[in-house]
Design a protein that fits this description.
Number of strands: 7
Shape: elongated
Radius of gyration: 17 Å
Strand order of the largest sheet: 6-5-7
Structural class: mainly beta
Distance between the termini: 31 Å
Strand content: 15-25%
Amino acid sequence: MSVSAKSGKMNCVRTARGRGIALSNLSPHKCLCNRPHCFVLCNVCGYWTKGRVRYFCPIHPQTIFLFDIAQCPQCKSYGFMLTEF
């Protein structure tokens, strides 16, 4: 966080986030299509299951895997609230 002396406004630098992953952690040249299945945890209700969170591949943006989890099956929260581990 920085304060501008001229305007007296505070500027907060934030990490841009997209689809639940910090954009700086995504490799723009790495395919996400063939990821292994792992455990998916909902950060809202605590529900967990085996599968994959639906992420869009930067190499194949037109490809969608229908069994990837786009939202929590229990509380219907959005995909950015899901964590793979």
